[in-house]
Amino acid sequence: MPEGPEVRREADAIARALRGRPIVRADYRVPGLHDRARVLEGARVTRAWSRGKAMLIAFDTGLVHYSHNQLYGRWVVAPADREPDAGRTVRVVLATTRRAAILYSATDVALIAHADLEAHPFLARLGPDALDRATAPAAIAARLVDRRFAHRTLGHLLLDQAFVAGIGNYLRSDILHAARLRAGDRPVDLGSARICLLYTSPSPRDGLLSRMPSSA
Predict the structure, then answer these.
(1) pTM for the full model?
(2) Cβ–Cβ < 8 Å for 65, 59
């Protein structure tokens, strides 16, 4: 499953390709969205970004595209005149006269009014984004000792998007290895010095959770 860094890189690529240019093709091959998406033709992308493992693309119409790649979803940016890969299921095509962003395979797709974004069931339960520069180590430290999380094993906790958004299996393994902690350890049993290993690193400037790879 794509994790936070992969979705962030896809968002960055979409922003470079589409932002500020009129959409000439908005093709949503998802039940209930095909007709609604027609209002996006002529609209301009104002922003593309990720929240954890979710892709968000804002338009100047006030609508926001939401999608989750799930297990097999993938965004590809290509020349607008290139035909999508016939071997994969196309879900969304957003194209300008020059470039197109194509979503393959994923089925968790919605168009949401910007004002309703925070009420979306997936987005509403997300914890702080591990890739957001505003997510400070102190915020992670506070959550590790919060009673909602402190008694859970790190192996389960680090995958909980309500704890910190954007971490999946390989990042969990990397974090535990770098911190020299075990999947069965619980924050409540570790003590402050060992808990500190989860959000600090040998570099005094960066925390482990804030060093997740990103092109942003």
Answers:
(1) 0.88
(2) yes
